Amino acid sequence: MAAPQAPVAHAPLQGAQLVIGTIAVSLAVFMNVLDTSIANVSIPSISGDLGVSSDQGTWVITSFAVANAISVPLTGWLTDRIGQVRLFMASIILFVISSWLCGLAPTLPFLLASRVLQGAVAGPMIPLSQTLLLASYPRAKAPMALSMWSMTTLIAPVAGPILGGWISDNISWPWIFYVNIPVGIVAALATWAIFRNRDSVVKKAPIDGVGLALLIIWVGSLQVMLDKGKDLDWFSSTTIIVLALTAVIAFAFFVVWELTADHPVVDLSLFARRNFTGGTVALSVGYGLYFGNLVLLPLWLQTDIGYTATDAGLVMAPVGFFAILLSPVTGKILPRTDPRYIATTAFLVFALCFWMRSRYTTGVDTWALTLPTLIQGIGMAGLFIPLVSITLSGLPGHRIPAASGLSNFVRIMCGGIGTSIFETAWDHRTTFHHARLTEVATPTNPVFNQSMQQFQSAGLDPSQAHGLFERMLSQQAAQLGVNDLFWISSMIFIVLIALIWITRPERAGGADAGAAASAAH
What's the pTM? Predict the structure, then answer.
């Protein structure tokens, strides 16, 4: 689960040590979060270079997300066995090594294996960064420390698409991974210099080996099924049927085992609490929609609208403006208001943004692309912290680490699954619209005849005119497909508001708000 506080209290850091320690932890978090989004706009480049389709290229994103989700619940156990500082150091060093391997990858399977390693070793990094940072500051200054930490986690996803796009267009895609190497080395050296004498007490802790094995089996089977489903024509394939049955059976055994185990890897009994269930499901599904669209939008811009990776990244950038500006405001007003109002406002903003995107055409201009992204930053500022506050509301202190770990696991899983579902759904809706448009593209249709005449009067022969019309028809089908997904996302965000209001959060005090903010990412 989320890393516990060290049993032995250390005095807060002061002066230069505090500054260097904060920078070291922030660099590690920045590097970690950056890698959740830096590959998004580079998928076409990676796919083309490795000779695979774009939908296969998205495995680069989902493999990292799923491996990361599986490793998060192990953070508490690993901390007990290794120590929080040594574990944090090991995560940074292994992250650097796996980033180097990603950049060297000559084939997609090698790249995916490296990304799985990268996601697995990244799991403990974020909860441990919170632990180390909070222990470095006086208790009265904890909100300031968490505010700085939140800034890092908001800037990184914004910088990712811009940096990834620029690197893909001007250097080569392996450098989206190589940039982690100098950052990671500096973070590791600074972390060891400041925190090496502030480690937690090591103790032998039991591990739920059966639960962990079942977790890996059902999560892995589900993700492979989602990723390979389109290529294998879903349930007409024996492979997909076997994967689906494996996922269902392993999940059923996992639930039964975890509810009866003495030391479960995830505490599923938390779902008996209304606040935890409502907050976790609303946040996780909302995050899955957000992350799925975060992958879909730049992919559509590059494959169908003709944007470069850099330009697609710049379209995504404005989300950070209001997110960074308003997040401290959210943290200040949260203890004095009902978090359900803030979360509801955030979901309505997301619904508005996706509705605006559902009205795009193939002639969409830059302003129409940028405006919803800019507005979405308002929703980002109110998405995480209020919902985590609701999720943890009413829990006794000793259950908060387990609740934070389980909530993060579900959220990260939904991010990975959302990417796979959106890719498959876009392909299905594009195929559907292509078939519908083709049905009416006949010589009896005056629009079709007029288009053919215009193309031929421009100097094209009949075969060239038909080829151009087919390309235009395919672009329009992809446009209608992506519009469908934007509209569905908008509607789901509205429906999710009901989950927010089935909760009954207790009024959070300052300490509770701090704990919620700490667990928010």
Answer: 0.79
